[in-house]
Every structure is written in C-alpha cells, then in structure tokens.
Automatic annotation (TrEMBL):
Signal peptide: none annotated. Belongs to the group II decarboxylase family. The lineage of its organism: Bacteria, Bacillati, Actinomycetota, Actinomycetes, Kitasatosporales. This is Pyridoxal-dependent decarboxylase. InterPro entries: Aromatic_deC, PyrdxlP-dep_de-COase, PyrdxlP-dep_Trfase, PyrdxlP-dep_Trfase_major, PyrdxlP-dep_Trfase_small. The keyword Lyase applies. The keyword Transferase does not apply.
Length: 474
C-alpha cells in the first residue's frame, strides 16, 4: 500500500464517519435489522482474495453503519451506553496507527496511561498513589482485578499463601452486596472461586441504599459461624435506579472489621463532578478500590474501564509475575502494567481517554454531567405529575425508574404491561428505553448520559411510552 492510497482512504473514512455522526439525530434511534441485512453479515463468506480499501468502505457504509445500536442518538435512554465523545473517536485512529502493547516499557502510551489514570482518580476524588490503577476493558474486568486483590489480602492476613496454595485450606471468604449490586460482582466472585453462596445480600432501605446496621449484623453472624468476612461492595450509582450508597458508615465498619471496601462506580462515580449531587459521594475516597467506566458517562469510545486501588502493593502483589524475557529496567520502579492486572498485551486505551478529557476539560465534563442530572430530575418531575405514570425511586443521579400504571390492572397485570413496554417503544424508533425489575416490580428505566438530550426529548419519551401502553392495552 502506498502512502497516497492510505491517505485517500483515510480522508474518505473521515468523511464517512462525519456524515454518519451528523445524520444520527434525524434517524430512527434503533430499528430491527431486516432478515436480508442480518444474513448478509452472518453468512458473509471468508474472502479468498483481497479487495481494495475503497470497496471495504463502501461495504461498511452499506452493510454496517445503517444498523447502529442507537446509543449515539440524544433520544437513546437505554441501559448505560453513551454517545461517543468526538475527540475519543478521532484518537482511536491514531492509537491504532501506533498499535503498541501498553504492557510496560518506555513509550508514550504507557506514560499517558499513568497520567490519565491519575486524571480519572482526580475527577472522582479518589486518592491516587503512584501506580494505583490501570485501564481495563470495562468495569467487569476492573472488578475481577480489584476483588482478586481483596481476596489476596484476606488470605495473607489469615496466614495463607493464596498464590502458592490456592483457596484450599482457607475458611470460606464472605463478601457483602445488596440486591441492587451489578451482576459483574457475582461473576467475579464465582470466577475467583469464592462461590456466589458466600455473597450475602444485605437489605437496602427504601432509597435503595445499603443498610449499615444490617451489614454489621450479617458480618457478626458470619464471624460467629467461623467464616471469614473480607469484602463489602458498595455502589456509586446502581444500574437499576442510580442509588449511591452512604459510604462513610460503611467505611467505618470496614475499617473496624478489617474488610476490603470495593465501590462499583461503573455508571455513577463521575456524578461527583456535579456540585448539585456531589454530597452523595462523601466517603467514596475511603474505599480500598473503585471500579469505574470512562466508556459510560465520560463518553470515551468503548472499551474503557478503570480499576483504582488505594494500596498499589496489594495489586502488584496479586498479579506480578515477571518472566525473564520480560525483564526491563526501563519500566522503572512501578514496573509493568501487566504486573497489576490480568492482561499481558494491552491496547492503547489511554489516548482516547486523554483526548476525551482534554477536549472538554474538567469544567466541560462537569457541565455535561450536571446537564444530565438536571434533565433526569426534570424527567422525574414530569413522571410524578402524570397520572398515567408512577415514579418508582428518588432520582439520585441520572437514572429515572418509573412505570406505567394503567387503571384497572393489578400488580400482575402492571408487571406484564411494563415488561412488554420497552420493546414496543424501541421498535417505534422515536426513542429508546429499556426495562428492568426493581424488587417485585417491572419498570422502565431511562438513563441520561448525553448532554445533547433536550427537555423536548423527555416529553417525547413519555408520550411514546403512553402511546405504546395504549397500543398494548387495546
Ligand atoms: C455497566 C456496569 C457494570 C459493568 O461494567 P462493564 O463496563 O459493562 O463491564 C457494573 N456496574 C454497573 C453499576 C454498571 O453500570
């Protein structure tokens, strides 16, 4: 390939991507793929011969770009998926052109990752010792990294060499979560051999927050039974309702009892940037570890999670293995990133994080996030003021949990209706919202992550939900 061939294809790509992004808001948010289009992708034959770049671009334009998930659109309220930050989109191309392995060494990507991890810690007000974190594929992986360190510390304190001997011979390690804790925590506990049976579900209050008195009682019960309590997982924004746990009383208990406090901030930790809700996060900085997702509220293009830890040695002591062929004095005192997590060859995620944060600055990011929380509170008010709808939880961050309460339906009927509603709304294509279960109730949950969303979009969302409900009821 000549430089000129590459350059002209790169310019064409830039045009294609710019046109795609510009056209998004006027298109349906999401539409099911028709069978032909789906089959064209699923059954694509392995190409025997190569094709020129121009043809590939045409195929992307024809077969791929017309069928997005929807999360680039300001009327997308589903799950926790943001629109991509434009600066992050551009940086992705440059990062791929360099294509390093960010495992360690003396090249720009490695040093930039140290810097952006420090920036992320600073944005959410978490202490950052040198080396105290790394970028991951997402919070699921960051949680495995943090919980592995927690497990290692607990075993060591019990006089047990986990890395050498494994779990055998150790009393069961017990962790504490709530009914609202994300499934990635259970997945991590299962993978780490802890057993989901040893995750206790602590009661939450009506505000969805972990009850510290219940937590204490559960820990004392397990100690009395000869088990080894070691971990509490608190949430800086639950995925269901956006509830933020009261960290200070939980951290007090963890300090007193020698438990590792892990906070899941995947969705909500960056909410601390908004002065209107910053008080909810008091005590977050006392956690032993924090997992969070720049690929959610910051809009860094997927994938990008982050694990932050208070004690760097715990992380390195859990993962460091330096085979002779990787010895490298140039890595400096902090060593390699691959000594702090599970991956050896690691992608250059730092550039898109750097670009996303540098483009908006702390002030711009805080404005964007404040805009989302203000809109979420407004949506909460609109739901409350509407006789056909019911707000199911206080709006603590930027998730609004609500349901349709059609007259004449009992709880079973309401659950059936609200379970069907999101799919009908999604297929109409004007807005996109998803559902979930909250306790015994099926609900809709609108997650606001896009600063381009307007109040008009909120009205449209509620109108669409009510129209879809009428269609289902008739
Ligand atoms: C998204 C999310 C996760 C999982 O993170 P991934 O980046 O999808 O791996 C965990 N917890 C919460 C609260 C989330 O919103």
């Amino acid at each position: 390939m000549t430089t000129e061939d590459f350059r002209s294809a790169a310019h064409a790509t830039a045009d294609l991507v710019s046109d795609y992004l510009a056209a998004l808001p006027a298109r349906p948010v999401w539409q099911p793929m028709d069978d032909t289009a789906r089959r064209a992708l699923l059954d694509a034959p392995l190409p025997a011969e190569g094709r020129p770049l121009g043809e590939l671009l045409a195929a992307i334009e024809r077969d791929v770009l017309p069928h997005p998930m929807g999360n680039g659109n300001p009327r997308f309220f589903g799950w926790v998926n943001s629109a991509p930050a434009p600066a992050g989109v551009l940086a992705t191309l440059a990062a791929a052109a360099m294509n390093p392995s960010s495992a360690g060494g003396d090249h720009a990507d490695v040093h930039l990752e140290r810097a952006v991890v420090r920036w992320i810690a600073e944005l959410v007000g978490f202490p950052h010792p040198a080396g105290g974190g790394l970028l991951t594929s997402g919070t699921s992986m960051a949680t495995i990294v943090c919980l592995a360190a927690a497990r290692n510390r607990a075993a060591r304190r019990a006089g047990h060499d986990l890395r050498e001997d494994g779990l055998a011979g150790l009393p069961p390690l017990v962790g504490y979560v709530t009914g609202e804790t994300h499934s990635c925590v259970r997945k991590a506990a299962e993978l780490l051999g802890l057993g989901s049976r040893h995750l206790r579900t602590v009661t939450t209050g009506p505000d969805g927050r972990l009850d510290p008195a219940e937590l204490r009682a559960a820990v004392e019960r397990d100690r009395a039974a000869g088990l080894l309590p070691f971990l509490v997982v608190a949430s800086a924004g639950t995925v269901g309702t956006g509830a933020v746990d009261a960290f200070d009383p939980i951290a007090d208990l963890c300090e007193e009892q020698g438990l590792w406090l892990h906070v899941d901030g995947a969705y909500g930790a960056f909410g601390r940037l908004d002065p209107a809700i910053a008080h909810r996060y008091a005590g977050l900085e006392r956690a032993d570890s924090l997992a969070l997702d720049p690929h959610k509220w910051l809009g860094v293009p997927v994938d990008c999670g982050c694990a932050l830890v208070r004690d760097t040695d715990e992380l390195r002591g859990t993962f460091s293995l330096v085979p002779s062929y990787l010895r490298d004095e140039a890595a400096g005192a902090l060593g390699w990133f691959s000594e702090y997590g599970t991956e050896q060859t690691r992608p250059f995620r730092a550039l898109k994080v750097w670009a996303t944060i540098a483009h908006r600055g702390r002030t711009g990011l805080a404005q964007d996030i404040a805009q989302c929380t203000a809109l979420a509170r407004r949506l909460g008010e609109l739901v409350k003021a509407d006789d056909e709808l019911e707000l199911l939880a206080e709006v603590q961050t930027s998730i609004v949990a609500f349901r349709h309460r059609a007259v004449g339906l009992d709880e079973t009927g309401l659950n059936a209706l609200n379970r069907e509603l999101p799919v009908v709304v999604q297929r109409r294509g004007r807005v996109f919202v998803t559902g979930a279960r909250l306790g015994e109730q099926e609900m809709l949950r609108a997650c606001l992550l896009n600063a381009a969303t307007t109040e008009q979009d909120l009205h449209l969302l509620l109108a669409e939900v009510k129209t879809a409900a009428r269609a289902l009821l008739s």
